[in-house]
Write a structure and sequence with these properties.
The chain is α+β, with helices and mostly antiparallel strands and 292 residues long. The protein is built from five helices and 14 strands. The longest helix has 15 residues.
Amino acid sequence: MRYQVVHETVYDYESPVVLSEQLLHVTPRPLPFQARETHRIAIAPEPAEISEREDYFGNPVTQIVLAAPHASLAVRAESQVTVVPRSGRLPPARGVPWEETRDRLRTFEQGAPLEPFQYLFESPHVESFRDLATYAKPSFTPGRNPFEALLDLTRRIHADFKFDPKATSVSTPLREVLAKRRGVCQDFAHFMIGCLRTLGLPARYVSGYLLTTPPPGKPRLVGADATHAWVSAWCGDGAGWVDFDPTNDCVVDDEHITLAWGRDFSDVTPMRGVILGGGEQTLEVRVTVTPV
């Protein structure tokens, strides 16, 4: 599938901002199953400095500095991306038990890959506590293949948790998400990551876009989509990383567009930074994903 993605972010400030430095994760990541064909970022007012680089996790980032007073900041990222199906990359239905995948990392066995280790530990938005393991264990029964267990955990989170954008905020802790059983894609991704890490399995947070379908008989609306979040789980040396979307109860395929990944949302925030001045501020975000 080929997609046109427009991601617009607009800040309006109560009083002028005299200095602003921002880090942008709004550039789709090139991957074996995803090609970034075109990409441009338009910024108003024009920055005094702009640079591009890769962050620690290999995500493309843009850093900007605005040194003149401004009452608003608008960032428009427009990309054309081609995504191919990943079905041929999925692990077999039968294979190494999930405990062997866990123990291979836990014992630092010779030849074990190093990259998954960094996704085993707590991070700013993902705490590890016993209730997470308790929730995950019915899916991770003894001897079960990790892919089957992950599919089951994805299904259970989708069934047990209700999508409710008013129930949580960016800072809502996992204990509250578990108690309420409500939240948004970011909460469900963090929750699933916490379950896996508590069991000793590496998991990372993936941000991106999802092609959404309008109600029957209704046109697709410009700006009606939003950024999305899902989970990438380590399934062992042979299978590697496999992505699961607990919000939609599915294995991620060619309807998901990957922006970036990290330990949790704090590593891949689409736009974050520091400002001098500004007072109260309002934020508006519009995302439009269109099949080409």
